[in-house]
Amino acid sequence: MNRTLSAETTGESTAAVSEASSAPTGPRLLEIQHLTQRFGGLCAVSDFNAAFEGGELRGLIGPNGAGKTTVFNLVSGFYKPTEGALILKGKNIAGMKPHQVTGMGIARTFQNIRLWNDMTVLDNIRISQHYQLGYTIWGSLFRSRNYMAAEERIRKKALDILEALDLARFADEVPKNLPYGIQRKVEIARALSIDPDLLLLDEPAAGLNSRDVQELIQLIRWIHKEFDVTIWMIEHQMTVVMSLCSWIQVLDFGVTIAEGTPEEIQNNPAVIKAYLGDENI
Amino acid sequence: MQRLTVPVLLAILFFVLVGMSYYDLLDLYIQSVIMFVGINIILGSSLNIVNGYMGEFACGHAAFMAIGAYISSVINVMLFTQDRIFGAPLLPPEMSLYFFPFVLLIGGFGAAIAGLLVAIPSFKTRGDYLAIITIAANFIVTSTIINMDTIGGSRGFMGMKQITFAMEDVIFLPWMLIWVILSTYFTVWVIYRYVSSTYGKGIIAIHQDEVAAEIMSVNTNKMKLVAFMISSGLAGLAGGLFAHILGYINPGSFGILKSTEALVIVYLGGMGSLSGSILAAILFTLLLEGLRFVLPWMSSGLHWFDGVFYWADLIPEGYQVSQVWKWVIIPLILVLLMQFRPEGILGNKELSDLFPRLRRWYSFK
Questions:
Q1: Which terminus of chain A, N or C, has fewer Cβ atoms within 10 Å?
Q2: Does residue B18 lie within any of the structural domains?
Q3: A227 belongs to a structural domain
Q4: Residues of B in contact with A136 (CB under 8 A)
């Protein structure tokens, strides 16, 4: 890793990352066009559109069962979309396998934490480096120079990322013995360890108490700035979404019912209706 | 110095065993027990890759053993012996010594290819369903062999003894013992290096959460393919050795019972523990052979008891406790094991985790 991260540097760099300044000159980071997913007769997501220039911090909200996680599953490659295109840095990734998509720079976390619970935190991060191992099975059997260099590089990178997120003291612990908040953080660290361009956070604040939520907001803001990563998050806790995201999309029954800045969303009648129901019942 | 302790110990063990066999200090029976310990170590630890580390439930391991056994036997018999079907030897029999390890490896390679038979279904299928596929694979392999008349069908295949004699004619050494020990070392070496690399740990990630593994850039299909191929390839190696020790193989010896033996070793030792599999293979083989002596003693002991105490009737007059009782006692031990220590002897730990002092003697990496 080439970033050197510490609390001091974070405090000094106060300039907010504006979307326009970090926009790349090349193709867009991710373009989602007319994304549609049907499961049998059910249309889980219909005609979903979004475009990321790179550097944004966006939110995706909606009532339960609205299809938010389905969108993430489509982007990360778990489902092949029924219709539509997913263009990552100029390449269509629709239909690619999840590990390929991850290798191309999209990392994600899960609503319910999915760490490898019986492996140490360090191993959790190390195994996530499979996309850039740089050796084959023969290398691992004969412990070639290549293999030794790769293993050393991976170990160092894993330690660096844990150090950066202040998790180094848990390196040799197994996740199942750690508090829930720390497990969340480890999962985010694991996702960051693949050097993503786009980080998908699926309800990162789920199950956290209010103090942890405040810490999480700080953490996500800090990650967004320091790691120069585009973040797209699903979240139910409005404090998190409203204080972090600069652009929010709202899904209801698979349909995008609104999008805009937090202020616009808060005052949008369609959103209020979806969340609170119609007043003329 | 610390780096050398284990290799030196292994070398000493090798030379002591081979030397004692050479000078007839170990009789043929003891030698064969040692060889079966070696074969069971290979079988158990190779199955442990799939059942322990990767967390699948494969129960057709004997199928791959059969493929390795038949391929290496047929090649050897065809090349080096006068055979009814394959005719005159294609190469002088003395050459068999130099070719033997390669023929064994070809057998293992063939078995690894056959491993695709279960590896490819495993992409989509997990757990109990994959278990059924592996049992099916075992039946497919044995019934294919039964129906191939050129290699003896259900009558079996022989002629491998001539290979061992030919090897001993070149240089008089207990060759089979040497090959078994070397293959065992090779297997443990391969598995140890495989599962301790970040590459191999991918299969442990699949075990603990396959979805997370796939999303964190582990190519799960490829990992499964490699794991199944290594596992079945090593089983093929064990099969080749098995065939040449016995000098005779038939499809019946590679049935579900043999697969079960390999499973027993894995679960006795502990899933995902290489040292556990080795310990369990040694224990299991010694137990199996030990009962050969214990059962007649039990017979005579019970008869003696009945004789001394007129009221006792523990065993019918003239009945001998037969060897079949082995297969009552061993499963009973398994039942007790699963009741009281379901994680096996070592759980999923290695010896060096349980006895950290071992690390002082050798740096396990």
A1: C
A2: no
A3: yes
A4: 199
